[in-house]
Amino acid sequence: MLAVEVPAPAAEEVRRELHRLGLVDPSRKMTKRDGRVLIPVKGPPPLEGSRHGGRVVDGGVLEARDRPRDPREVLAERLAAEGLPRDASPRRWERLGDVVVLRVPSIARERARDLGRVVGEVLHARTVVEDVSGVHGPFRTPDVRVLWGDGTETEHVEDGIRFRLDVAKIMFSSGNLAERTSLAARVRPSEVVVDLFAGIGYFAIPVAVRARPSRVYACEANPAAFAYLEANIRRNRASNVVPLRGDCRETAPAGVAEWVLMGHFDAPRYLDVAVRALRDEGRILVHGLFPREDVPGRAEAEVAAAARSAGADVLEARARVVKSYAPSIRHAVVELRARRGPKGLSGRGPSGPP
Ligand SMILES: C[S@@+](CC[C@H](N)C(=O)[O-])C[C@H]1O[C@@H](n2cnc3c(N)ncnc32)[C@H](O)[C@@H]1O
Q: Which of 138, 140, 128, 54 minimizes the C-alpha distance to 97?
């Protein structure tokens, strides 16, 4: 059986890397032999001679992992046993730490609390909350209701980064994981990042920890999110992150950045702030919601035009889909390679790093 053999201290990091590449064979157990660890893989990874000292080997027979039953199957069975209708079982849910967030199917509305209890027991959660109506307002505040369990504050670990948050106050979108990890792989240690809408550190902390840029300025206006941002910086020892409390229009530094992150659907309104933050040439990542047929195409043309009006020389504009937001709407990122033009030097805000 194909395996990657690594020294034990590097095993967890390599496993995560392989997992990201979709190469770990989940049906077999990791096995320790003579101080080295064999990680079962589905195919040869691009790892040989890697910085971890990993190599691809024939690992012989690796013990099979006991396959847990599909939780959807168990849920359907348990709900039926409780007398809930067949279609009451939620098809999807989001797990953030030990809290499960789900939409209650209309057929289960009358028995929502029973549904919450069964889901909590089957998924071994501490709390189950209903996502009542999505997120709202400039702070993207979730509208949730506790169905079962106790406490909505949790710690969610994603790609080795620990995010503390209260799911009743703060949104978290697991669908943006690929965007978070790919960005961290592109930023260089000498560079400076300005995150205009940092939240609890969704982008700022993974980039700071993985890419080790010289500094990440993280602006956040919501006091509740800001408190978690500070806590998460400490928790992940991301000492290169500078948290800036308040409206990014007032707090974002000018003339410092190679990367400007705009993880908010109101981002186009703040393009002048982004352009001003550039040191010279850099990349501005503008998140937005666009009709499906506009990505790629109109999305990048529109954002590039808005950036030019905000004072940028746009050298390149590319759009990529992050996830589907609604049947005909896409959450996409328009990435601009841009230079701060003469007009981008004017405007309000601090004139340099605080
Ligand atoms: C939607 S969240 C970030 C989501 C995250 N990028 C993701 O994709 O999962 C955006 C954050 O921007 C913050 N925010 C909104 N307007 C702001 C402003 N003018 N200045 C700074 N932060 C702001 C909100 O409070 C919120 O925490």
A: 128
**Nearest atom, ligand 1, residue 140 CA:** 1
Report the domain count for the chain.
3
**Whole-structure pTM value:** 0.80
Q: Which of 241, 176, 157, 257 is nearest to 207 (CA)?
A: 241
Cβ(141) – ligand 1 distance below 6 Å: no
Does 207 sit in the ligand 1 pocket, CB within 6 Å? no
Summarised one tens digit per residue, pLDDT across range 277-320 is 999 999 999 999 999 999 999 999 999 999 999 999 999 999 99
Of all protein residues, whose CA lies closest to atom 25 belonging to ligand 1? 139
How many A from CA of 282 to the centre of ligand 1? 21
Do 189 and 257 lie in one domain? The reply is: yes
- CATH code where residue 10 lies: 3.30.70.2580
Whether residue 186 has pLDDT greater than 90: yes
Q: Which distant-in-sequence residues (6+ apart) come within 8 Å of 18 by Cβ?
A: 4, 24, 39, 41, 45, 47
Contact status, residue 263 vs residue 334, Cβ threshold 8 Å: no
Same-domain status, 85 and 54:
no
150 CA from centroid of ligand 1 (Å): 27
Q: How confident is the model at residue 117 (pLDDT cuts 50, 70, 90)?
A: very high
